[in-house]
Structures are given as C-alpha cells and as structure tokens.
Amino acid sequence: MTPDSTIDTIDTIDTIDDVLVVGAGAMGTQIGAAYALAGYRVTTGDLAPEALDQSRDEAQRRLRRLAEKGTFSRDEVDSALERMMYTTDSLEAARTTDFVLEAAVERIDIKRQLFADLDEAAPEHVILATNSSTIPSSLLMDATARPDRVCNMHFFNPALVMNCVEVVRNPQTSDATVEAALGMVHRLGKQPVRLNKEIPGFVANRLLGALRNEALRLEADGVASYQDIDVAARTALGHPMGPFELMDLVGIDVSYLIRLSEYEQSGDPADLPHPSVQKLYEQGRYGRKNGRGWYEYTS
Ligand code: 3HC
C-alpha cells in the first residue's frame, strides 16, 4: 500500500463509474440520487426489500420534481433513474463496484462488520467511505486490509439539496484517497470541506450541536416553547429552520444514536442524549419520517 501516490490519485478518479451505496434510508436514498444525476451508475443496497422499494419511490419522486422545476431536463432525470439499481445483496454488488459509500445505521459494531465484509468482497483499488459524522473512519479502518482507502464522506440532510460534503481522513488515509473523494464531490456539483484530522462530529455538526444543546436547555428550563425557539432561530438568525424542526428532519432516532455513539467514544456524560430527546426516542417519535417528533406531520 502506497499512501501518497499521485498515480493512484489519477487512476482512482478516472476509474470511478460504478458506485455502491449501502443503506437505503433517507441519506442513502438521496446520496444515491445525487450520484446518479452526476452520471455515476449507482446500486443501492439494503437487507430489507421494503426499504429498497421505499427508496426507489422516493428517489423517483424527488428526481421527477427536479425535472418539473426545470433544475434538470426530463432526459437527464430519466437517464439518472435508469442508472439506479437496487439490491438486497450489497456484498455481491461490491464485487463489481469502483467505490462504496456506507450510509447504514450509526452503530459501530454493525459498521465494523460491514467494512470487514466489504473489504473481502470489493476489488483492491476500491475506496470504502462512510457517511457517518460520529464514527470516524479510524474506528473502521482496522476492520479492513486497506486502511489507506478508508475515509469519511459526510453528506447533509436532505442530500439532494445541501451542497456541503465533509471529507475526513484517518491517520492512514492516503492522499490519493482524499483527492479521489474531493474529485467526486466536485463532480457531484457539491462543495467539499476538507478536514485534516478527525474530530467527533466534524465541523458542521459541531457548530449545529452547540446551537441544539442550547435550544434543548432553554426548552427544558421553560424559558420558551420549542415552537418559539424555532421562530427565534428562523426570524432572528435567518436559519432556514429552527433546531427542533431540524431534529425532526434529521430524525430523532438518528440524533439519539449519534449522541450515544459520541458518549461511547468520549465517556463524557455531557455527550449523552438530552433527556427530552431520549423521551421522544422511547416514545417512538422519530420526526418527519413517521409523522411525529417535536411536531406532528400530516403528510
Ligand atoms: N428532500 C429533498 N429535497 C427537499 C426536501 C427533502 N427532505 N425538503 C425540501 N426539499 C427541496 C425541495 O426541492 C423544495 O423545493 P420544491 O418543494 O419546490 O420542489 C426546496 O428544497 C425548498 O423546500 P421548501 O420550500 O419545502 O422548504 P425550505 O425552503 O424551508 O427548504 C430545506 C427546505 C432545504 C430543508 C431548508 O429548510 C434547509 O436548508 N433546512 C436546513 C437543513 C439543514 O440544516 N441540514 C443539515 C442537517 S445536519 C445533517 O444532516 C448532518 C447529519 O450528520 C445528521
């Protein structure tokens, strides 16, 4: 393994045509659609056939809407949809892919097993990236025999809309891998943010976390309702949505598991999920995805 080869960089960027996205949740679905729009052939893998059906429907709906709005032509959207495939056997798909982006559940045990299996299945040159913002790739790289080709590529929700992608290297990630990831972000028409070292939460979520923690404290202390705190964020700060609306968009379950994973890594009780978030999680109020979170949703 040669961490810093320029030849690797050119080869890798030029040869990425087929992309495997593992995980057909909200993030995996829209990341896959973004890759397809940029001309990549995309396979979305998930163990659950019903998750794949939902993912296909959602991708079709989102991409057709982009054609209706004129953001992309009907032909561009139709050919992007033709480039999107679905499978319950991600490991089989990994055998013929050029690049893997993992967007599965935020559980380190599951991700480590997945990375070990993907490493067995995927050709040697393939980069294995994770969309996680809380599990840095240094916690996954030693599950593989290719630590130089493992990194984080962190997209934001909703991934078809949000332009930022954080590219984060672990101490063993090669320059070639970082350059290939940055090249892909540019081809997606998105804006890369390059992190030179790992830190839990990376950059954007740390900024967001500071705001969210303060918002949760204000609500729990009875200073203002969550609705009014959201109004303040939107109308005083110009944020597109308030911190409680954003938690519902990202998913209460996702927020909860992210905090739990941060706590597991730091051991700092301050990193535990806030009790209000834990309560919503235990009540199964996951946010927009199931119609109930901080707010109620009718459609
Ligand atoms: N998926 C895809 N596209 C969406 C969408 C979604 N869930 N929601 C909205 N859009 C698109 C649509 O194209 C819509 O246009 P259309 O309905 O006319 O076709 C356009 O965005 C504008 O939507 P709306 O008019 O309904 O509402 P807004 O103007 O408020 O925009 C928003 C919605 C883009 C989600 C905006 O509110 C926003 O930017 N919110 C902040 C999002 C944010 O901060 N994301 C980061 C979360 S943190 C994260 O992801 C990290 C992870 O690790 C947890």
UniProtKB/TrEMBL annotation:
Pfam family membership, one: 3HCDH
Span of domain 3-hydroxyacyl-CoA dehydrogenase NAD binding: 19-197
Residues under site feature: Important for catalytic activity: H154
A single MF term (Gene Ontology): NAD+ binding
Entry annotated with the keyword Oxidoreductase: yes
Origin superkingdom: Bacteria
Domain 3-hydroxyacyl-CoA dehydrogenase C-terminal: 201-297
GO biological process: fatty acid metabolic process
UniProt pathway annotation: Lipid metabolism; butanoate metabolism
Keywords: NAD, Oxidoreductase
Keyword Ribonucleoprotein attributed: no
Residues noted as binding NAD(+) in the record, renumbered to the chain: G23, A24, G25, A26, M27, G28, D46, E106, K111, S133, N157, K289
Family to which the UniProt record says this protein belongs: Belongs to the 3-hydroxyacyl-CoA dehydrogenase family.
Classification via PANTHER family: 3-HYDROXYACYL-COA DEHYDROGENASE FAMILY PROTEIN, 3-HYDROXYBUTYRYL-COA DEHYDROGENASE
Protein name listed in UniProt: 3-hydroxyacyl-CoA dehydrogenase
Organism, as annotated: Nesterenkonia jeotgali
